[in-house]
Structures are given as C-alpha cells and as structure tokens.
C-alpha cells in the first residue's frame, strides 16, 4: 500500500498545524490550526468574516492546496486537542472535505463552538466523538486509534493510523506526565505495544517545541505544588489576590481553585475564554469544580462580579482572569489600566501561572501589563508554571518506546526542528534517509 | 547607648561577608567570609599558607582594619551558617580578637574543621555552641539571640543583638520556608515578636541576592518534588544515573538519597566536600541517612567505590558527586574526562540539582563539563533546583514583620543593592535617611 | 558661600532631568525634562492639556516641590540641549520661577516651540540666547559659562557655574567627539583650564548612561562612515530605499542626505519631527542642506510627496522618515502597515540609523514594525549608529581633565549610577564622602 | 556529465570544512579544515603526533571515508584561504590523494608551514600557486578559476569549477568589501559574468555564518576607522597601550601598525602566530610594514623585547599581541597574569580588535583574561572590529549576481543553515528541490 505524508502546515512555524496521511486510496487529515500571531499583527482583522484564501495569504491558516497532489479520498479530519493552533482553521477549511471530524469529546465541543462562531462559511461536517483508548475503522483496511496523552489541555490524544505497512503516529503536543492533575497518565504501555506489534511504527510525526531543552519537563503535579507553595504563602494576606493562566489549561485552573478554597478565598473565573473553557470542561464532567464557583465572560456580568467583590471585601475572593501574556484587551491588562471596578491596592498579589511566550511582541505587552499593575501597587509572581511540551529526555524515551522507521519533525521552524534532528541523529537516524527535514507544502512518500 | 554598624565586607561583592555592631563598649562581629573567586582566578594559590594581609589585598577576605575605628571590645564572633562566604576567613582573622566564636552546632563543627586545616595561623578562640531559639548575655546589657531561619544549608540562624536602643537583626542568607525538608520552618512568629517588643527593631541588615527577582522563592519541598519527578521518570532505566548538588545542601542530598532508594538504587556520596558536609551532618544527628550509605572523599576510596559500582552493575547505584559548577578538578568533571573507573554509556543520566552561578567563568566551565559528559553519551538534567535566598516577596514580608527603623542592604555589589533600595523605598524608607547604601569599610552611626 | 545641589529629577530614571544649584542667595536650575515613557504607557494622554501636578504624580515631570527647601532666588533656568528629557517640562514648570531661560540658540528655538504648543499654562519667562564659549554674570558674584560639548543633537553645551568656592560643572549628555560632523569638537582645553583655574572644580554632575560600557564611544564621524558604507553598497539598486533616524540628530540626517545625493537619489524628510528639527536647524544656519531638500510634516503634504515619489520612480528618492523605535503612529510603521501611498516592494531597503532603546515596550514595537516591513518585502539594515553618550574611557578622561572635588552621578537609576560609582571609586573617590549617590528630591550641601 | 557534491565536513559545525565535487571522472576537493575546539576540550592533545583516524573520531578533522563513494580521480585539493578551519587537516589527509594542492601564494605558504610541522605523516603533494583571477585546466574538460574575494585574511578566493553542465562556485568565507585595506575589492564583475556565461551557475556552495544577521557587514575600511578613532583618542596618553587581534588578519594588523606610528609609538608584534602570519605576509610582499617593525615569536625574544620596552618607556611602544579570545597561554593572558616583563599600570589601555567568538568556553576565558588585566589597572576597549563574513544583504546580492540553479548552504550546523534556507526560500528556491539541506558525509547528485 502506498503511503504519503503531506506536511501542510506548522513545519515552518508554531501555529496552523496540518498534516495529511494517504494510505492507499484513503486520506486522514491531522489538525487544521490557526497561527494567531499572523492575524494579530494587523489592526482590526476579524477572522470570522474572512475568506480562507486571504487567511492563507496572510500565513494564518494552512495552505491546503497541496491536498490536490494526494491521490485519495479524505476519510477523516482528526484534531488532536482543542488548542487554536490545532483546531482554529477547521471553520475555514473543513467544509471543503466530505469527511467527518473525529476527536475526543472535549475537543469536539470546542470545534463545535468554533464552527458556530464562523460567519463566512457553513461547516457541515459530521462531528464524531471517540474517547482515548478507542479505535475505529477508516477507509479500506485502516484503523484509527486514539492513544491517551498528557498536555496543557485535557482530553488530548495522539492519533495512530494503523496501516498494513505499519502504524503512523501523529505525535504532536504532549509531555510524559505520569501524575497529571486531571485525567489518566500518558499511556506509555500502549505506545510500547504499538512499537512492537505487526509491522511496528512506520512513521512518527513529532512535536519539536522543546527539543532544545535539556532534561525532562516535569509533571503538572509540580506546577500544582508551585501553586500550593505560592498560595499558602499568602494565607495571612488581607488584601487582593488575582491569578491568571492559560484559560484552556483546566488542570491549572483546578489547582488554583482548590488552593484558593484551602486558604479561605472564593475563587471566581472571569473573562470570555475562562468561562468558555472551564464551563465546557465542567459541563462535560472533566472537572468537578465547587458548586459555588462563578464563571463570567460577558463584560456586564464581569463588572457586576467585580463590584460584588469590592463590596464584600477583596480578601474573601480570588479572581482567576485572562491576560497572562499581557494581551492589551484581556481582563488583567484592563485591571492594570484601572478600567474595571476591581481596585488594586499597594501589596496586592498578581500570580502569572504561565510563562511569557518568547517573542518580542508578547514580551513588550506583558512588560506593559506588569508595569501598569505595579503602578497600582501590585506585586508580581511570575512563571508559576510547567510547560506542556516534553523536553529532550521525553524525545529519547519516545524513540526508545516506539522505535519508528521514519521520523518527521514538526511543530516549529527549521531552526527548531534542527535541534530535534541533532537529537535523533544521535539515536542512529539520518537526515535525508529516515529522518525527514521538511517544509510546509511537501509530500513525503514513505512507501511507493 | 551609642550604636555603630561597621560594614566591613560583602557590601561590594558576594563573598567575604563581615559586619560589626558596636553597642556602647561592646562589639559583636557577624560573619568572616571568603570570596573564593578572588582566589581561584590565580593559578596555584593555596590559601591555607597565605598571610591575611595578602588575602586582603587580593580582595579574598574582609579588610578588618576598619575595626580600629570602633571604640569597643569584641565580645563575640558570630557566623550565621557554614557557607565559606560566611566562615571562610575565620581562620585568617579571628585570632586577632579576644572573643569566642558563637554559632549553631553544625556551623561550629565546620568552623572547627576549617581552623584545623589552617597552616599559617593558630586560631585559639573559644568555640561556643548555641542552638536556634536560644540567647546569651553579651557584654554590658546586651543579649544575643539566634532566630531559626531556613537556607540552603542546615542549622542557619539570623542573629539578633538586643540593645537598649532596640534590636539589631543581622538578616543574611535565608528564604521563607515553611516546609523545609530538614529542620524547623523559619521562625516568623519570633521575628514578629521582636518587631513589636521593647524598642522594636533599630536596624535590619538584609541579604539582597535575589532582590531583583519577582515573586517568592519556593520551599525546599518544591526542589524535593522536582527531584522526585526526575528520579521516578528514570525508574525503568537500566544504566548509570549520577547526581550532583551543592555538598553543603544536606536537605537536597537527603532527597536524592531517599528517592534513589525508592527507585531501587544504592546512593553513594563521592568527593571530598560530599563526605565532609554530609558526614558532619550525620555525625551531629541532623540527618538520618540509611545505614548503608557510603561516603568517600579520598581519591583511593572513591576509585575503589567506582570500581565496585562497575563490577556490581551501574544500574544498582546512584553516585552523588561534586562538580555541579563544572569545577575543573571536581568529581563529575573528572568523570566527563574519563579519569575515573566509572564508565558513562550512551543514555546515562546526569542530574545537576543546582543552578549555574551566573558568571562567565562558571558558565564556561560548566559548559565544558557538560560537553565532556555528552561526548561520553550522557544526558543532562539541569536546574533541578530552588534558590536558598528569598525573592522580592520575602523582602516585603520581612519588612512588614519586623518594621525596622533602619535598613542596611548587604551581600552584593551596589548594582544589586540598588534593586533592594528601590523595593524598600516603595515601602516608605528613604535612601540617605533610614536606608543606608554603603560600601566595604564604612561605619554607620545609628545612635550617637 | 553656601553651596547646595538639589537633585530634583533624573536621578532614578532617564527622563525628567532637573537639578538646582544654590550658591549663596542665588539659584540656577539646570534642565526641566519630561519622561515620555511615563506618559505613553497610558492611553490617550495629552500632556499639552494636563496640569503639572498630575504629571508629577505620573512621574512624567520633575517634582520641583523640593525647591522650597532652597533658601535663594532662581536667577536662571538653563537647559543644556534640546532633547525632551531636558526641556520637555519647561512649559509646565518654568512659569513658577521669575527667571529667564538661558540656552544656546538652537535649544532656545526648541524651547520656544514647546512653549507655543502648551495649552494649559502661559509661560512668559524671558528667553536668552548664549553661544557656546560665552559667559554671563548671574546673581551675586557668579558666572555662568557654556562649554561646547558634542552630543547627538547640535548646539549642546555643559553649563559651568563659577562660584567663589570653585566651579560647578553640570556635565550631562555628551561624548568626547573630536571630529563631529556638524559644529566644533568638544572643548577639552576649556575643561582643562577650568579644572586648574581658581579653586578648581567644586562639583561635577555627570551623565552615567553608558558607565557600564567598556572603552570609548566613537565619533559621529564613524557613524557617517557606516552610513557611507551602507548607502554606497546600494548604489546600483533600482528600487526603494528608506532611512530613519532620531529626528533631532541633525548630523546624522546630514550624512544620510549627502550620501543619498552621492548615490544619485533625491533625499526628502518626512514626518512632523523630521520637519521640525531639521527645519529649525536649517533656518538657524546650523546646517546647509541642498536647496531642493524637501521637508514635510503634515499628513497631506507627506502623502502628496509619497505619491510624487511613486509617480517619478522610487529609485530616484531616499525618504528619511520618523519611526526608528517602531513607534505605532510614526511614518515608517505606517509604511509597514501599507497606510501611505509609498509601496514597498520585494528587495527594498530600510535603514535604521538608530539603536533600539533597550526596554521591552520599544523592543516589541520595533519588532512589530520590522515584521510589517518584511511582510512588504523590505530588507532591514539596523544599528547603523553610534551612541551620543560617552563610555567608561570618556568618564576617566573627564575626571583626569577637571579633577572635581565632588561628584554627583546622574541621568539614570541607582543600578546604573552604581556602575559609575565603581568607576569613580577606582579613581580615588569614595561614596558617602565626595561621591554622592543620591535620589530625586534630595539636597546635598557641599559648602555649609 | 555526471555531477556530484560530497559534503564531507563543516556541514554540522564551523570547522573541519571539506567538500568534494565530482564532474565526470574528475574530483576536486575544496578545503580540508580542522575543528580546533574539538581538540582543545581535551587536555594535552598534540595534533601533530596524532593519527588521522583518531582525529576523525574526535570530530576534529573531516571524515573523508565518504570519498570512496565518489567514482573518480582526485585532480586537485583546493584550500580557499589560510584559516585553520580550511587548511588545518591537509597535513593529516592530503597524502592519501595523488593530487596537487592548488591555492593562492599566501595560502600555499601557510599550507607549506603546516606540512612542515606535521610529525606523523609525510605529505608530499605538489604545491601549486595560482593567483586570484587566474584559471587552470583540470581533468577532462574542466577549468578551475580563482575569483578574488575579501575576507578577514589576505589572498582569499572563491574557487569556481567550470564544467559543461555549468559552473560550481565554492563560495565559502567572504564579505562583499569594495574598499578592503589590503588587496583588491571583491570581484563582483567576474561573479556576474560567470552567472551569465555558458550554462550559468549549476551550484553555489555558500557560507552561512552570518545568515541570521540583518543588513550588511561593513568594509574593513570601517574597522580601520574604528582603530583610528580609538588610537587617536589615546594620542596624549603617557603610559602603556597594548592591542590584540586575529594574527591572520593582516589588514587589521596593518591599520594598528600605521596608526600607532601616527600617534608616535613604535608598534611591535609579539607572539608566535603574530610573527608567523605577519612575517609571511611581509615576506611575500602582501604588506609593506615599516622597516623597523619588530616581530617576535619565541619566548626569549619576546621577553627581551618586553624588557627593552620597559627600559625605554612604555609610552614609546604599542605591542600588538596574541590573546584576543583570552586563550590561557596566549601573550595577553600572560601579561594579565604578570608573567611577562611588561608591567601594566593603572590607566593603561588594552584594545581588543576582535569579537569574542560566542561560545561559553571562549566567553569564560575572555572574561578571566579581562579580569586579570583589570586587576593590573588596565582599561579595556573591546569589539573594535568588523566581521569577515557577509550578512543577509550580502547573501541576497550574491544570489542576484550569480543566479545559481542549486544552492548548498555550508559552514555551520543545521540550526544556522536554517536561517540561510529561510532567506533563500524567500528568493524562490525551495528546500528539497534546488536548495539542499545536508549533513557531513552526504553526496548530492546534481546531474545524473
């Protein structure tokens, strides 16, 4: 059976991930993501109303025109998890393919919300839920399996396409977490089996984000301990405490919520993304928040909540808000500008349970946000955080575990892929032979 | 009663700490430290045989000639803890003063060992042990109290000199750790009392090392969780694992020892400093290591141990060795050079439970050490670590707690002290009034 | 005669410089500057309409309330050169003092323009011009002299107040340039004389901006050679070339203008500040631009010019525009956004004859501007530049030359002043004795 | 005619450059370099006595075993210039090939000296001189041409192999310098002709060192102006001035020598490499040094010279010495350690006309060297320098000029090559099609 890998997007950047695998006459598409930074650099761009071709020209969504080079039928579109750089282009591209979108329940729910907010295109693809650990037949003699992985969002999986020539593991976005705060540990046993059963692993497509980082990315449990350490140190403080984190990182939100309770404060989630992700997670029973946990996204209800907090005493609350990157319109930045009813006072604490994504625009905005907060008297606690992507040791472990015949490094520009290539060559692979340095828009033929 | 503070050393550098407080006719000296980097930049300098004046000229030990400007009698020499930058000049300077050395038991033991290795001077001062929480009368109407603090070495205290004019707190080298791995939490209650009793705190001498770091330095408990996360991730590895950390950081050594056991490996301490500090701690009952924990310092016994490890299988052991900064002659660097019987193989793990002290010489040496280890096949886990010095939030907390009338920032150069000065001015202090920017060799008169 | 130095502003930041010297009953004020970054961090602040007290609260202009502690009459307000951080608060503060503003002709002209744009206060102080090298009597037995210096703006001086106790040299903002592109070299001979005549130099107030930089800041001649090298390398290019630099740096503008001509292009200055500074310099005969050099500041005339350039061929022009720091509303940023009639094409060159002021906000904005330009096809030439402030060797030379009895480091925060203090202590001065580490709002009594 | 490119060394590092081109039955080898850092990391390695296979295993010299995959006869070994990373393996590898070494006169002379110092192998290859601008027939229907280029060493060329299928340009190590201080400007006219004549340029092998740097690398003329600016600023200094630079950078040495004379000092070259390179350049008439310029390499004559300088007065001399990277045994480092008769005094000037090669080992050593010099009182002038490698704009210009069909980025690791690949893709090339990302040991077939 012929096997091709089309590396459509996310091979020259982080963002707009998209990869297609053709096995015989059948094609499976993994991820259709958005590169948000290519949108935000322009003023006043509303992606909801834009045509896909314009977004392709801007570099914001994958240029899927290479799909016409693949001789087969798309059988499924498979987003691996709910981050925008993996699902953000579905509303612009999926309707071109007569195929269902297959994903885990949490991811499906986020895809559904995205499709609903789309104003330009009608996206009518079937939405099919499949849980981690499950499989389904696809096309002609193929099986699609979801292996449970651990990432900075819940219900993440690595899809595996089983073909007669061996398995294709689409390995994007995970860390090897044996003690995640929500959900099951990464299913290394299943990866080990896949590596040994049948023809083994024909190809492994790998996320290179942290391939330049030494050692191991710790478990989310460690971030939880950091949150505990910081919040308990504030146990006696009688003023305002505010926290921010990635809205989609439900396990972190959960830790903050729980330790807020433990130190005697009422947590409350504020900001549109906070409401969206945590609300969805709770509705789908991924997390069991306290019954009295408020979540507010609309400006009016947020302001009402802030007023209530000010009336009842800041010392009784712990708002968890958007704005961890200093985004100019996010809640925390607005608090820094004094645009909300919440008054920061000298000595109030602001916890960034996130790292600054290292790019000058972010760094400038985050710096401004911190300056504004400090001008109000706030004290900054930053980097109470652990990455969602594995480091070098995780890569070594994955290679040992699944022993792929071919590797396609992904999820970054060539400069970063290069670090992974060095690592993999140290393990006996060879660039140009079984280790494929590639670019957006290429097709790699593995079996001809 | 007249009160003077002589800022003798460590006000223009990290290293060679020394401060004297005169209250009436009595003087107490806090710390007599060594600036090791000023020694190591020269080839082949042996401090044991050098005269104190030469070491003063090199900037290696405090220039205590300013002591003659103080009109009083030295009643005690009080090192706060056993790090070299606090006790390393005792063997060169203490014999000039007719006064006992008063310290906690672990510190006293390290002072004793240092005096014994001195070849130039005979140091006959009395060595007096006092536990954290205890006090003694000093001179005429003064009391010396040891408040328990938490630092990267055990048995650390902040000495407090109670005078009729208020207390002088010599606050060097601590973090606010409520869950240290060994010993008691920092005694914030006592600090609070001291801040409120009698005349309150006349003066607070403060360690500024991390005054530029946002937020809070976490507890040693967090470093322990990092060690746990890393070691458990290696549970199934069948080759060599080696760890290095600050030899004097007994709590870290203890964590590594314990998790080594838990993952089924025999820990063993190798290197002269490892044997010295951990051996001393165990002998004094500060730590309860497993009975079969080997500690070897001499070249021959180290080599014998390495041979035994190679014979019995690397997979059964976890050597904890010196060399975390890449020091050219330390054990780990020698292992990288292949100068020991221990053979590193492809895939072996090396854990640096330490950060690189940020100075180009260290960075270069550490880089070389890592390169050599990697050439042997090792994989590096770095920065499995938490600092021993408090960050900005700790400083805020201390000021709230003890409310000193005067502050003297210490333990760094003026560029770093400046960051603390900004912080303290934000709390209402004022440089030139009650916040004293000073240099080595000055005398500050607090009460005239 | 009693001599006091009030260090009013610019001792904790770069920006809002202001220093007052009292000699007997007479006071001279040096500089009244604006810290623009404290304004820009807020949205929609228009300083022209704001009250001085609000601007003081924001940290934008000097808090001159300390002036009431000085027992004397203000006889003159003396801005050293025309940069905003030296003259930008005159329109808010000068009217409170019954004293003339004394400055060089170019500086006076800029002060006049600023006063005219002020909407809140009427500023009626006399404007008195004095050339470099000249002196005037001030108050009772004092002389004010202007020593010619070289900086990144023309007509800069160091004012010297001659008193019976010795001279006070207000030494802000210069480099030691013996081959400036416009005007005379720095007058080191006169500094040497002042150091040796009469009572010598009582006090030297020094600009510490680059006290941490090794070696020597080169002459503007070197920047001119850099401009030459870059522009000649483009001699054969048939597309667009655009340059940006500090608008007030007339000598740099002159170099770009001249080499543009040499490679066969018509230079044209675009943007409000470009028109303002270069127009003023030409009107006052400081620079002799080509007769046909266009300067356009208003939006309409700029757009008309851009259209003409596009019609007549980009290859015939070299626009010199505002926007070297990536300021969001400056001309070059607008060109990057495609908001002007000038069309950038693949291969067009953009020369930043400036460095990014190292602060995250600037860095983020500059990065965005470069990204936008690159998206249009532009190629970036950055850092074609030389600083206007002297480095360590300049400081050594000044101390050798004038041999001051006292030094007051200025023009930065304490962290930067600390580097100068280290340098000066290496020359025999001593902090707390004759080397004064100070803060905004202090008064230093030199002669009592 | 079949055309293969074997990318033997220098495609994963800077150092050990080696590339072979097979055209039909004939092979030409370009460069045989040494990666010195792989030697120096070990203690006490003497390359002169080592076998080539051991040096290959260390990664120090190219692994030329891939040569056996090329079906042809080596007709020439062609080093492009005299730097060690281009000629340093000739003494270890050239004797395996029955072919002459063809190079420019200066390069040939350096190769000869290297062969003479070799102790392990007898290297008997013919040494053939060819000047820039000349050509010779090679093998069967091939022509080898030397195009004059400008680099940080004199007599550098880019060899061009003219084949019936088009030209192969081996483009390593140059900047586009139209005003070099010694020799002719880069011959862009000839590159343009080659790009247009016959079949044009089949393949361009390019040096990517600075492909990540914006803009243009300036001419050596600019470095000369920097040297002038610095030395003239010291014209009145009555103490010691010492300069260091890359010994092989004769044009820089010449600038320092000439401006030393102009400010009234006798220059003198000290250190083995200084004597070697400058002596050779003078003997071959590349540079016309003053008759009285001393050059001393042996320890005894250096010490004698230093003694003479101390006797006759440091203010009359300007030693130009080795040690710009802080190499532990170089002359300047020894001066810092006080190991030479030259006494540094407070205020003496040390000029580093070089940049630190950005690698932690160098940075550490250079830092130590500067610290030692400063402890003697020296003042450091660093980075009086311009790179020898072109930046992005040079790469654009070369592509415009020669319009190659294929590009092979070289002279760095993949992470750096990636930056060039981005640049070239912006010009319409495509990785995997006509833009070849490669590794050491690969063979690229261009014409089959």
UniProtKB/TrEMBL annotation, chains A, B, C, D:
Top-level taxonomic group: Archaea
GO BP, sorted A to Z: RNA catabolic process
Binding positions (Zn(2+) 1): 81, 83, 151, 173
Cofactor(s) it depends on: Zn(2+)
Metallo-beta-lactamase domain mapped to chain residues: 15-234
Key word ATP-binding present: no
Keyword Zinc: yes
Enzyme Commission number(s): 3.1.-.-
Subcellular location: Cytoplasm
Gene Ontology molecular function: 5'-3' RNA exonuclease activity; RNA binding; zinc ion binding
Residues engaged in binding substrate: 385-389
Subcellular location, principal: cytoplasm
Cofactor note: Binds 2 Zn(2+) ions per subunit. It is not clear if Zn(2+) or Mg(2+) is physiologically important.
Listed InterPro entries: Metallo-B-lactamas, RibonucZ/Hydroxyglut_hydro, RMMBL, RNase_J, RNase_J_2, RNase_J_arc, RNase_J_b_CASP
Protein name (database record): Ribonuclease J
Organism (species): Halococcus hamelinensis 100A6
Gene that this polypeptide is encoded by: rnj
């Amino acid at each position: 059976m012929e096997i091709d890998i089309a590396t459509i997007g996310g091979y020259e950047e982080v963002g707009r991930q998209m990869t297609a695998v053709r096995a015989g006459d059948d094609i499976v598409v993994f991820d259709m993501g958005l590169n948000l930074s290519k949108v935000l650099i322009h003023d006043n761009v509303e992606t909801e109303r834009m045509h896909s071709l314009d977004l392709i020209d801007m570099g914001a969504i994958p240029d899927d025109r290479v799909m016409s080079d693949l001789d087969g039928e798309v059988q499924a579109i498979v987003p691996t998890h709910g981050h925008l750089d993996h699902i953000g282009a579905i509303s612009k591209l999926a309707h071109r393919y007569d195929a269902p979108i297959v994903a885990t329940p949490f991811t499906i729910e986020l895809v559904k919300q995205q499709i609903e907010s789309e104003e330009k295109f009608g996206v009518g693809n079937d939405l099919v839920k499949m849980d981690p650990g499950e499989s389904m037949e696809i096309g002609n003699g193929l099986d699609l399996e979801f292996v449970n992985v651990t990432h900075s969002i819940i219900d993440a999986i690595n899809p595996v396409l089983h073909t007669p020539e061996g398995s294709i593991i689409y390995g994007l976005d995970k860390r090897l977490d044996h003690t995640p705060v929500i959900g099951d540990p990464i299913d290394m046993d299943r990866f080990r089996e896949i590596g040994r059963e049948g023809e083994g692993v024909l190809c492994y497509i790998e996320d290179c984000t942290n391939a330049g980082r030494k050692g191991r990315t710790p478990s989310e449990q460690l971030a939880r301990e950091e949150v505990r350490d910081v919040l308990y140190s504030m146990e006696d403080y009688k003023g305002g405490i505010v926290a921010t984190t990635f809205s989609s990182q439900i396990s972190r939100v959960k830790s903050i919520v729980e330790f807020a309770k433990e130190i005697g404060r009422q947590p409350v989630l504020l900001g549109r993304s906070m409401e969206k992700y945590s609300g969805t997670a709770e509705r789908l029973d991924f997390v069991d928040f306290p019954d009295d946990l408020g979540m507010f996204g609309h400006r009016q209800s947020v302001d009402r909540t802030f007023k209530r907090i000010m009336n009842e005493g800041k010392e009784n609350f712990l708002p968890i808000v958007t704005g961890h990157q200093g985004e100019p319109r996010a809640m925390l930045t607005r608090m820094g500008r004094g645009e909300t009813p919440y008054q920061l006072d000298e000595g109030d604490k602001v916890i960034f349970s996130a790292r600054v994504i290292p790019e000058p625009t972010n760094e400038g905005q985050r710096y401004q946000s911190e300056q504004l907060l400090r001008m109000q008297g706030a004290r900054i606690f930053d980097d109470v955080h652990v990455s969602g992507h594995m480091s070098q040791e995780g890569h070594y472990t994955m290679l040992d575990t699944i022993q792929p015949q071919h590797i396609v490094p992904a999820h970054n520009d060539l400069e970063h892929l290069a670090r992974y290539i060095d690592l993999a060559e140290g393990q006996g692979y060879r660039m140009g032979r079984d280790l494929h340095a590639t670019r957006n828009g290429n097709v790699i033929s593995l079996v001809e």
